[in-house]
Amino acid sequence: MICKKHTRVNRILRAAGMLLLGVVLLFAAVSCTKEEMSDMNDKETASAVTETETPAEVVADGYTAYENGVYTINQNFTLTFSDELFRDAFNRVTLSYSATEPLVMTLSYTEKGSEKTDSFYLEAGENMEFSGLTENYLRSVSAEALKTVTFSTCTERKAQFTFGGIVTEEYTVYDGKTHYLENDRFKVGIRLMWGGGINYIEDKTESVDGLTNLVNQYDTGRLIQQSYYGTGANGEYTPGSFNNATWSYNPVQGGDQYQNHSRIIDIVVGENSVYIKSQPQDWSLDGQITPSYMENTYTLYDDYIQVDNRFVDFSGWEHPCSTQELPAFYTVSYLDTFVWYNGTKPWTNDALSSRDDLNFWGDAQYSDDCTFPLRESNTETWCAWVSEADDFGIGLYVPNVDRLYAGRHAYNGSKDPMDGACSYVAPINRIQMVSYYPITYSYLMTTGSTEEIRAVFTENKDFCDNVSLHENYMSLRIPDETPDKPADTAVDMSSLDFTKEETYFQISAANNTVITYDGEAGAMKLTASGDGADVQALLSYRDSVPTLNASDYTQIEIVYMLPNNNGFADYGCELFLCTGEQQGAAAGMSVTGSLTCDGEYHTLTLDVGGLDFWSGTINAVRFDYFNACDVDDVMYLKSVTLK
């Protein structure tokens, strides 16, 4: 049951067979309760809406054609309402429509005596319904009159548009700081002012002294929330910077790094669930709301919390394939030990893996150590942050993901959810954000000991398959052993063959780089992004079986090609060697080489034998493939071989 004030609802319905007089359409204004309006929706007929004493006029303008209730529109198709239609205060609008293209809907209304406009995105589809809260909803400020509604296509194509009806109402205003959802086991807080991200999870049946809320809510970037990565600079979009790097387009549910909060678009509160729609900020920019919507449905069960997520981007930009956080998951620092399953016998109570020494995942020198790839056959893709002292914590289960990325920031063991220190994990898939096409997935959370967390996830392992996470997707999974490729050679990374798309998982973007597989070229394509400075790719050797030792190799051989249309005639590159105790790139521990730009493939051979810092286990190589370049300069990479 939706909780709301029981007030008048203004409604306009398009009646079948209505009379068209030039650009003047006859509509009926109906005042009714929400329940009466819902009943009318079930039997939408001409007679249901024309039995009023005074028909109301609505002026339609800006369409290119009209036939049988369907308008052909492009930009600025406007419905202007008479003053009699929407006299009552409102803070929520519901529209029924059909459209062949995604649209922007702009409302013009009066707020506190001043004229105001407010815009929303509409997905394409048949028999659609959209509800949106006015911009100052959380401030308890209502609109006073709706004057016009204007529709424009998000694309350059014309749209066939059918107007089914519009409703305004004064809706219950929920607490923007934290709205709680609660049952006998869990208390879950949803921060509406921060886009509806989760800022509070308490297990009411467990007691650890001084520990109540398990979620870190230090700023808008923490919480448990949706976050996605898209384009870099593209001619229309200019990225900002964060953590000493040029950042990409990054809608974040909570808000941006400057603490501007995201916008709540809609909320529906049920008995055991809450539905949220929000419009996120762009993380690296200051107060730039993104052209996208995030939807979350939070549902409480006896033993777990289920979250159903949906994201749609309306930018129209072409985005690269990027590693996506599914979701971003932050806990208090006290939960210091990361636990996950790293085997090939899922759901058999096989041995778990754990780490209690993880560093900051955002520091390039530790990023590889914070990455936990999963084997092809491993469906037991849950993980948990627990306290070593109490073996108590919170678990996260996201089916059909390829990697886990986890770490600790400024670890101090604090139980305070407002402390700057925190623990973090994000299940990862490499997915291309496609404008106007939704990304959907679901996950479970539960609390307790490691054994209790695993038992709940095992019992509910088939709650969904998240098959949609493998759309517009490139695999990051590590291959299993096979009869002709036993475990001791399953992932021998001494020779990285990038002519095959399945080796995508062996290279990742360390900074200002977009990596794609180019099937026509038969190679990995590294494209300089951001401002073209400090471009890097990371080659991780930690998952090689057998383990690689620097003493066995004296050269690194790279087969590459630089297209003729790159900005420079010649380039320099640098390889930072991370071996032995050296986990990340460090000044003075590198080799350099020169690259030729002529559209032909070349082999670059770098001597590393005898270097005093080339010793012990080979952990990673950071490949700074251009020392200087233009944005969108490209390297095609066919192989990297240790010899």
Keywords:
643 residues, mainly beta, Jelly Rolls, Beta-galactosidase, Chain A, domain 5, 13-stranded antiparallel sheet, nine-stranded antiparallel sheet, 4 helices, 46 strands, 4% helix, 45% strand, globular
What characterizes the major β-sheet? 13 strands, antiparallel
CATH topology of the largest domain: Beta-galactosidase, Chain A, domain 5
The N- and C-terminal alpha carbons lie at a distance of: 68 Å
Count of helical stretches: 4
Shape: globular
Strand-residue fraction?
over 45%
Number of strands: 46
Alpha carbon gyration radius: 28 Å
CATH hierarchy: architecture of the largest domain: Distorted Sandwich
Report the mean per-residue pLDDT as an integer: 88
* Residues in helix, %: under 10%
Please identify the structural class as seen in this structure: mainly beta
**Could you name the ranges where pLDDT drops below 50 across 5 or more consecutive residues?**
1-9, 13-55
> What is the highest CATH level, the class of the largest domain?
Mainly Beta
Brief digest:
The protein is mainly β and 643 residues long. The protein has four helices and 46 strands.
